[in-house]
Amino acid sequence: MPVITYRQALNDAFAEELTRDENVFLMGEEVAQYNGAYKVTEGLWERFGSKRVIDTPISEAAFLGLCVGAAMMGLRPVVELMFWSFAYVGFDQIINNAGCIRYMSGGLINVPMVIRGPANGGTNVGATHSHTPENFLANTPGLKVVCPATPYDAKGLMISSIRDNDTVCFMENTLLYGDLGEVPEGAYTIPLGVAEVKREGIDVSLIAHGRAVLTCLAAAEILSAEHGVEAEVVDLRSIRPLDEETILNSVAKTHRAVLVDENKPFCGVSSQIAALLAEHAFDDLDAPILRVTALDAPAIYSMPLEKLQLPDAQAVVAKVLSSF
Amino acid sequence: MPRTLSLPSKTKKTAAKKAARPVASKVAAKKAILQATLKAIPKATSKTAPKSAKVPVKAVTKAKSVAPEKVTLTASSKAEFSKSPFNSSLKPAQKINFLREMLRIRRFEQQALKYYNQGIMGGFLHLYNGQESVAVGTASLMNGHDEIITAYRDHGHALAVGMGMNECMAELFGKGTGCSKGKGGSMHFFAPDKHYWGGHGIVAGQTPLGLGLAFAIKYKKDKGCAVAFLGDGAVNQGVFSECLNMAALMELPIVFVIENNGYSMGTSLERSSAIRHSLASRAEGFDVDWSLCSGFDLYELRASLGEAMEKARTRYRPHVLEVATYRYYGHSVADANAKKYRSPEEIELYKTERDPITLWQNQLLAENVITQVGIDKIDAEAKAEAAAAAEFGIASPWPPEESIFEGIYHEVDHKTEAGQTGRFFFSE
Ligand SMILES: Cc1ncc(C[n+]2csc(CCOP(=O)(O)OP(=O)(O)O)c2C)c(N)n1
Ligand SMILES: [Mg+2]
After folding, report:
1. What is the residue-averaged pLDDT of chain A?
2. Ligand with an atom nearest the CA of residue B157
3. A129 is an active site residue
4. Across the A/B interface, how many CB contacts are shorter than 8 Å?
5. A196-322 carries CATH number 3.40.50.920
6. Which one of A94, A126, B5, B321 is separated from A316 by 20 to 30 angstroms, measured CA to CA?
7. Looking at this predicted complex, what is its ipTM?
8. What CATH class has A3-182?
9. How far apart are CA B73 and CA B55, in angstroms?
10. Closest to B144 (Cα-Cα) out of B180, B101, B83, B196
11. What pTM did the predictor assign?
12. Which CATH architecture has domain B52-394?
């Protein structure tokens, strides 16, 4: 199987879907002639032309809204936010329009679009460029939220998201764009709402999404090699819909849950998982539900402190050991 | 203190003289046009008469320079509008139908108001009374490929495009038989099958959706255009400026219609907008064509909007049309200050002198298209239809409890594979 980057996996997904469906188009700042601020759309403008791959002015509210309107009419926009942090200037379009129009129209309208871009901290660019809004978006019934951790998942989930008939908020990660992984050629899909056990274990469940999954995998190796603890790593892959079954099955097996989340702790994704476990896995648990999340402050600029702000493998190891 | 517009009252006296002078630039021409039209405001009421942008003015397009003396509301200019290509071939039956549609909207809303005041209808109720000609005129110009979208003052547009009174009234009552199954309410009516995309509660939030409609039309090579309505207050939302830029940049077939009724809630135009000549002229900076027109006269509205729509359809030229209009009721029925931020005389002036329905009736009577008896009959039918719709709404059942979780995700509603994996709702 070819080994390609996370970035290339996404690029391949776009190429597949642009070829397959005339209604799919890409839009965003610098996505066409500049090849994408993070080169995720590289070469697509040259290949598919200006009708299908479209540069916009710096007007997130207008182009997000434009894509909602076009999606209502049956087109399938894939719209890039240079950073998900910039979604806030177009939040009205995402929440009120993409998120609520189907409901307010009594189900007459649907908005089949993908809003995508990187949503991560850890890149030394300060608070305004480091937001992880998956919890805000997943808090809106009507929206779906997807956070792939690997190149394989990125491609399969992206193709599913483009074919999905609802709005999918697709969160990538600038720190993962260069990661390599095995990715099949051609189109394949990974259903939204299906988590994956990325590592089997019997002693503790590490539950995470996005880059935190990789942190968990690294922590699991340390736990196994140095502490004789076999951790199971559950990759949520999508936040909404949420695969509760896989989460609960894992915890029923390991009796311990440590939630690892680059999202903030207060009303974050991990809060939702904790509530789920408290309600449905209380009897399975041998220890309190523990969390390792981003520290509850705006993303700091200073590099060494920023590293402290996000979960790393050592912090996960320490948290796991504290639960025994 | 309210800021002074570009038209201090002194200029009124000299307006006629100035208007007769040839003007050098297009901008100056527009200014002169506005000044000239002030003549049309009766002297006795000039104190309460609205200022520049609210007064009816003749449409001007960028392309041609208009001789200012022609622009007042004289009989001859009116006749000109009736002779425009968009009006000249109208059949009597069509003209009568416009009257019927306007009366239906007015009677529908008056019926709704009755029940709202009785407390058996909830929500907000933003009445369109006084503005009916704008929606009816627009719908009458739609070619089957055009798409329209508006804000929360949306009942008129809904009925004008052909939505039924029953489904609309039931929606106001929050009933399961409503057009949005009781999930949208007054501000959120939709009928995609009638090219009507809502009904939007966030001021100006619909404007980029309008861009998207226009984008899709062009993308699919359809033969239509998009018409996006917004209020005089909505023009101050940043997203609208973004839209003007993108409409021009991407050459989208869209007409933005500013329904300028002079007020955004309790704030008059003068207090909300820094303007040079008009709200529409802001489009100039984006290289978007613009024009002004009176919404009180259907011929004028159809002539101006028809031209703008045709240009959008055939040449992908976006356009901003500012329509002078007026609402009789408060911002919404719950607007306790409805009569405080404007004088009763002002409201009365518009009701008696500029009511689009009365003006159209008079026009049709003068043209011998209809008799008073005919008008009365249409009005009685509209009243009866509205009363029956209210009965239908009241008698309809509430939506079933389980419908709370319907109409959220397409994939779930259609029980597709993608709608089965994972948990979508987190109610319990
Ligand atoms: C973003 C936003 N801000 C404020 C409001 C509250 N609001 C609703 S309508 C309105 C006035 C808008 O006036 P205008 O655009 O002139 O439209 P009109 O009501 O006259 O039709 C206000 C302030 C809102 N709905 N959305
Ligand atoms: Mg207004």
Report:
1. 98
2. 1
3. yes
4. 185
5. yes
6. A126
7. 0.97
8. alpha beta
9. 10
10. B196
11. 0.91
12. 3-Layer(aba) Sandwich (3.40)
